[in-house]
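Hey everyone, long-time lurker, first post.

I ran two proteins through the pipeline my lab uses and got sequence/structure pairs for each. Pasting them in order. The first:
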Amino acid sequence: MAFQGMTGIASVAGRAWSWNARSVNGKGLDVRCRVPGGLEWLEPVARERSGRLMTRGSISLSLVLESDQATGVAVNHAALDDLVHVLEQRAGPPSPAALAGLLAVPGIVTVGARTDTGAIADELTTDLEAVLDRLVASRLGEGAGLAAIIGGLLDDVDNLVALAQDEACGEPERLRRALDERLRDLVDDAAIDDARLAQEVAFLVSRADVREEIDRLTAHAAAVRNLLEEASPGRQLGFFCQELLREANTLSSKSQSVPLTNAAVNLKVAIDRLREQAQNVE
């Protein structure tokens, strides 16, 4: 069982920077990357590398420049002067608040301008790949824990399906006794035609037959076990959990006895717990 979970955290320190990565649950793969100004070329690289290693999850990547050399600040004075000129023409001399707003315009202030990005591009990319590898390792660790949990929940499902099957085997006799008692009450203990009683019981049993539901529950649970051997079973796990829950609901609706109803209800609870854990799997 070597599938990934979708929760993980990792970090890698470089020469004058650090990469940080975090992953949480997501229906698809959503990669968000925050980098200092001037290093925006790393964003598509990060998305492409992440897509190679992961298929689901909400991934947050951030690059933090740490040294004075790497965190220099440069102002695009020509562009700032142009903006101030336009503002003066429209509203007069800009206030301090207006100037602060101009500094927030993309491209006016660049952080990390002292860093020769061409010289460190390979290092930044190498460290990006390293932090993604560590994130995957973290998610694999979660996956191992989930595999054990899901395996235990599948054992519960299997046991409850077997219990439901045993209870279902006793349904014909329970129906026969209940119908016999009801008819005797209605006819004041008069003799009951056993052949007619057997016919009525057969009719009721045919309406309450749950063998197909039991068979499908068994097959779906086996399919889930097989999926746990795959690298990215998350979406299919969700599908089979829905099918398991559908069959358990049908089993409950067909039940004609308290023992079988209780087994079906407990089965639905176990499947719902299984479904919740499956949502954490890539």
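...and the second, right after it:
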Amino acid sequence: MENQHSLSGWWESARKVVSPNFDARPTDEVSLLVIHAISLPPGTFNGDAIEALFTNRLPVDRHPFFAKISHLKVSAHLLIRRDGECVQFVDTDCRAWHAGRSRWWDLRGKEWRYALNDFSVGIELEGDDETPFTKAQYTVLAEAVRWLMARYANLDRSRITSHAQVAPLRKTDPGPAFDWAYFDQCIAIAE
């Protein structure tokens, strides 16, 4: 098994909220990290709607947008809120339902890979394409990445991508507001 540690894939720095939207990975491979951004309703931060969506409890009568998405069965492994709080929904050894229809060019194998949920970890940042992410989010994201790279030997900096890169016709997140250069500096500092 690729996992180098005997502990489960629950990060002790995260608050645990279990999502029913996961299943077993077809193999033990974890070799990709997909960064997402989410706000519910769009452009609104700091509510409980993201947790409600990932646990199938989104109240359709609270906002018109919720009625459009309440049928979705989605999750992510981690959510990093604007204040830096990290919430974990799915054990990283399991498959979260975050990437949807997507593909990724694997430089190591020199091939397109599909069904990315099978071998990736999904991290959601509370945010949108226009609003800059917070320093606290970058700091916690870098800490989470360091933890994940220590757990999974096949995961390194070159295997971190965005939802927009793996699903370019469907998704734009985390968007132009995500500062990749600053994130890279945060990872270097965390190492």
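Reply from user beta_strand_b:
Welcome! Quick read of the second one: Helices lie at 49-54, 64-69, 135-151, 163-166, 180-190. DSSP finds five helices and ten strands in the chain.
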